[in-house]
Amino acid sequence: AVPLVVAKSTALSAKNGLLIKNRTAFENSRKITTIVFDKTGTLTVGKFEVSKVVSLQKELLENEILRLASALEQKSEHPIATGILQKVKELSLPIPATENFNAITGKGVEATVEGKKILVVSPGYLKENNIPIPDSFEVNDTETVVFVLINNALAGFIALSDEIRPESAEAIKTLKQNNIKSILLTGDNDKVAKSVSETLGMDSFMAQVLPHQKLEKIKELQGKGEFVAMTGDGVNDAPALAIADVGIAVGSGSDIAAETAGIILVNSNPKDVVNLILFGKATYRKMM
Ligand code: ADP
Ligand code: MG
């Protein structure tokens, strides 16, 4: 039987945007010492808007870069894809068909479009493949960038911006007041991660983290004696959510993340993570 205080808190949680799937996760929430947050869609709104398109080849138009990228992105569900497709829609560009589409996990997408091999990839992918980033490359620290390659030659880049959620700063501040560390974990580039982490006053950040590394990062923190909660939304986040002491899936995310996690943040609001911990503490204090 579920003790009454727990039942009450669970109902109270539902009102506050928390869905508790697993009572152990709720019980564990009071012991959390570190929370690992994913960035996009949890600390940020998760809506990317194209802020800049730059061609790096003579006689290659910006719209052509967008048009080719959109062919690949129509096959992807990443928030970056949604942002690029929105821009292409606004410009009324026709989206060409693709063949051999492939998602390169944590790095981007590739496909054949009109007989050409097209890649839309992260700065990390360029580094790994020793493709130099040109001098004309300049974006704000808050912008996410993807590069477009045509037949393995760098053709241009697309910068996108997302916004920090208005609730995030207060959530991080309250965690700090309760002696709980917050760490940002993201597949996005270093500059963006640093900027979000510093703006919110988080304890540290880890950028360009590949999906299989997320799990390792959680284990690493646990090895240092931390009791770790993690928030995540993607299919890629599921293994890390499973190993975390408290796995928290963001409501707007994938079904697999939701199935794996013990707790679901119905409104994707980071402040509800704080409520979870405070509820957990209050509930089990009453019982003991
Ligand atoms: P996150 O969930 O933190 O955004 P991902 O592993 O999903 O991390 O993505 C990491 C990086 O890989 C992105 O910042 C981007 O550079 C690149 N990427 C992933 N998917 C796409 C896509 N559909 N189009 C372009 N770039 C992508
Ligand atoms: Mg993700």
TrEMBL record:
Q: Where in the cell is it found?
A: Cell membrane; Endomembrane system
Major site of localization recorded for this protein: membrane
GO-annotated cellular components: endomembrane system; plasma membrane
MF terms from GO for this chain are: ATP binding; ATP hydrolysis activity; copper ion binding; P-type divalent copper transporter activity
What keyword terms does UniProt attach to this protein? ATP-binding, Cell membrane, Membrane, Metal-binding, Nucleotide-binding, Translocase, Transmembrane, Transmembrane helix
A GO BP term, please? copper ion homeostasis
Specify the superkingdom.
Bacteria
- Sequence similarity: Belongs to the cation transport ATPase (P-type) (TC 3.A.3) family. Type IB subfamily.
Name this protein carries in UniProt: Cu2+-exporting ATPase
Give the organism's phylogenetic lineage.
Bacteria, Pseudomonadati, Bacteroidota, Sphingobacteriia, Sphingobacteriales
